[in-house]
Specification:
Blueprint: H1 7-27, H2 29-40, H3 45-74, H4 80-98, H5 104-127, H6 129-132, H7 138-152, H8 154-168, H9 175-200, H10 213-230, H11 232-261, H12 266-290, H13 296-315, H14 320-347, H15 354-364, H16 370-392, H17 401-446
Helix pairs in contact: 1-7, 1-9, 2-11, 3-4, 3-5, 3-10, 3-11, 3-15, 3-16, 4-5, 4-9, 5-15, 7-12, 7-14, 8-9, 8-12, 11-14, 11-16, 11-17, 12-14, 13-14, 13-17, 16-17
């Protein structure tokens, strides 16, 4: 049976097309430009990777603090659209201005601003899923969002690649021209794809404001955190999500930076990541369709296991063709693990408090991704002196300081796998208990006997 999206569902998906252009920029050309700027100012390759990891960690830590509060406020009547709009405007502005930064430190500052605003817009955007579609369609609509986001972002990406090739290969113009043009293209695409959803979205589920909005929001957030502790399925899913999605986002954020630090050709790295987007489109669509017959939790389990082996493979990566293999493998599972996690969570939370719950979701997801990038940066820094000394002594090694840093991510996928199995088990237990209560209720009613006069 053909799956047809409603106009509002299409507009919700279109925002994924818009913001994915920024995501792709962050994982490809942005770290390459930063490498050029940093190198011109005497920053070493190892330090460049560490600084990039630290900046990403700061951004995600900020979102971990602001996300739940703004998510809670977005649940109030009329607030979701306002917060969504503000996040988009700050993110687009930061992206456009970023292209003019010529000092490595200011470059990182604007990067933190733009990326934080982008992530905060996603907190609200994810919660909109509960308003734009019904529970039975969430898995497939969520998958369509990621799928079209991957393929749709390829158009501005190709334009930015043309600009980059003209600058880096043909030397048609300087970096001072190339950088502003690249970031302007992405900023225009992002805001353009946001307008249809912004014009059409109406908040269907909300909480009536009572008292001071911020004070009431923080009080509600505290109550929700206590509530989550009693909801074992939600609690253990969030713990699992913290670990496995952290690894996924770290790979997305650090892929190009990792390949660049290993000395791989930057043009080939960027094209390989374009292949990731192309592969991710049909993979997310097909696996989203598969969710009609296969339980979403089983698809998530397969994806976590796949990412564990992808991370192990990345440790031994030192050639361009191996990076291409890595890119294809990531594309096969990247959209599915994100989409299924989002829709799985949306179905196990109270719908009227979606913004608040997705704010917490973002702490354990994008907001907690500082752990992965910080881990990669710290481990790389810790092992850099050892490998520099071995290199000076003429000792050849299979690994590098960077590959040891990436290896730490495999542990995160393993922990996430275990906790997700626990969450699934808790969910099935709760479902059986609910069914048992429903079956017992009619029997209890029958045994009451006739009413007494």
């Amino acid at each position: 049976m053909k799956f047809k999206m409603t106009p509002l569902e299409k507009k919700w998906v279109l925002y994924d097309v818009g913001n994915s252009a920024f995501t792709l920029l962050v994982s490809t050309l942005l770290p390459i430009f930063f490498n050029v700027v940093a190198s011109e100012q005497g920053i070493s390759e190892a330090s460049y990777l560490s600084y990039w990891a630290y900046a990403t960690s700061i951004s995600t830590a900020l979102v971990a603090v602001l996300g739940p509060t703004l998510g809670t406020l977005s649940d109030l009547r009329g607030m979701r659209k306002k917060i969504f709009s503000a996040a988009i405007l700050v993110g687009v502005f930061g992206c456009a201005v970023l292209g003019f930064m010529q000092h490595w430190l200011w470059f990182l500052v604007l990067y933190v601003l733009a990326k934080s605003a982008y992530q905060l817009s996603i907190v609200v955007y994810d919660s909109m899923l509960c308003d734009v579609t019904v529970r039975e369609r969430m898995d497939e609509i969520s998958s369509r969002g990621y799928a079209w986001g991957y393929i749709g972002s390829c158009l501005p990406f190709v334009l930015t690649i043309v600009v980059y090739v003209l600058y880096a290969v043909a030397q048609a113009f300087s970096r001072q021209v190339a950088m502003p043009l690249v970031f302007f293209i992405v900023a225009v695409w992002w805001v353009g794809c946001s307008i249809p959803l912004w014009k059409s979205y109406r908040q269907e589920r909300f909480i009536e404001p009572g008292g001071h909005p911020v004070r009431a929001g923080l009080k509600s957030l505290g109550a929700t955190l206590r509530e989550i502790v009693t909801k074992k399925q939600v609690l253990f899913f969030l713990i699992a999500f913290f670990f496995f999605i952290d690894g996924v986002y770290t790979i997305i954020d650090m892929a190009t930076a990792y390949g660049t630090s290993l000395g791989l050709n930057t043009v080939m790295l960027v094209i390989a990541l374009l292949v990731t987007q192309v592969v991710a489109f049909p993979a997310a669509i097909l696996l989203g369709m598969l969710s009609r017959k296969v339980k979403p939790e089983n698809l998530i389990i397969v994806c976590i296991a796949a990412y564990f082996f992808i991370t192990v493979y990345a440790v031994f990566l030192d050639r361009a063709y191996e990076f291409w293999i890595l890119a294809v493998c990531v594309g096969l599972f990247q959209g599915t693990i994100q989409a299924m996690s989002r829709s799985y969570y949306a179905k196990i939370i109270p719908q009227e408090k979606a913004g608040e719950y997705f704010g917490i979701y973002d702490i354990f997801g994008k907001g907690a991704a500082f752990m992965g990038t910080l881990l990669v940066g710290a481990v790389t820094d810790a092992f850099t002196p050892l490998f520099m000394r071995l290199e000076m002594e003429g000792v050849e090694t299979v690994f590098t300081a960077q590959s040891i840093g990436v290896a730490a991510l495999a542990v995160m996928f393993l922990i996430g796998f275990v906790f997700f199995l626990v969450a699934v088990r808790c969910g099935r237990g709760a479902q059986k208990a609910t069914q048992a209560d429903a079956e017992a209720a009619p029997q209890a009613k029958q045994s009451d006997g006739p009413p007494q006069e």
